[in-house]
Amino acid sequence: MDLGLAGKWALVCGASKGLGYGCALSLAREGVNLVINARSAGPLAESAQRIRDDAGVEVVAVACDITTASGRAEALAAAPRVDVLVTNAGGPPPGDFRNFTRDDWIAALDANMLAPIELIKATVDPMIARRFGRIVNITSGAVKAPIDALALSNGARSGLTGFVAGLARTTVAHNVTINNLLPGFHDTDRVRTVVGAQARAQGIPYEDALRRRIASIPAGRIGDPFEFGQACAFLCSAQAGWITGQNLLVDGGAYPGTF
């Protein structure tokens, strides 16, 4: 299927590895030019070159902290325009909420709620003027099924979800959609950190904790970041103009609910 994205420009955050990289590569293979962002310049530059070699599109790497106003300004300035926005920031650390300070909560909100909102604010009106825009926020399966050890993430990402639910209904008439992608147990550094924390809390080896997590997934395996990226590419496609304000789980069937 031709997704109708060739020649467009995307800003993909947190794209040096993991789910962000999977989304960037998937978009690039559809002919989308990219501005990709991460904090570490070396890994980001390597990822940018891999995408160029693979897809032959223009890729601009901007090493900055997207959770800061200066970082967002730098990333946005590198793009001729933003037709597609993929927001993504590393999740806050796991732990017992009793041990979190106000500063911990503010940092989580800055990274996982307020930074996406600021990026949306900076890009949505030009998208409306061009009558095309696709915004995808990488959030977490914990929005649907909260994980006790991820209190900071549960709170901040749920706030973003509520915000998107309202805004997405006001932009879709202009062919600008806003959706959230909810990853489950994918092969990423973040998941390895969470499993490590669970292993320590349960007093079991990491390998045992990993096997328990995989056993809870109906698909019987860990997710591939590239297949997550393929879901992102479809939500960004010309064909997805009637999908907005949705929370799409990509979790191998792990969430047990009907809704």
Number of helices: 8
Global Rg? 18 Å
Main sheet properties:
7 strands, parallel
User: What series of H and E elements makes up the topology?
Assistant: EHEHEHEHEHEHHHE
Q: What's the helix and strand layout?
A:
Blueprint: E1 9-12, H1 18-28, E2 33-38, H2 41-55, E3 59-63, H3 69-77, E4 84-87, H4 102-130, E5 133-138, H5 151-171, E6 176-183, H6 189-202, H7 206-215, H8 225-235, E7 247-250
Parallel strand pairs: 1-2, 1-4, 2-3, 4-5, 5-6, 6-7
Textual characterization of the structure:
The chain is globular. Helix 1 packs parallel to helix 2 (41-55) and helix 6 (189-202) crosses helix 7 (206-215). Strands 3-2-1-4-5-6-7 form a seven-stranded parallel β-sheet, sandwiched between helices. The protein is built from eight helices and seven strands; from the N terminus they run βαβαβαβαβαβαααβ. It has helices at 18-28, 41-55, 69-77, 102-130, 151-171, 189-202, 206-215, 225-235; strands spanning 9-12, 33-38, 59-63, 84-87, 133-138, 176-183, 247-250. The chain is of the alpha/beta class and 259 residues long. Helix content is 46%, strand content 14%.
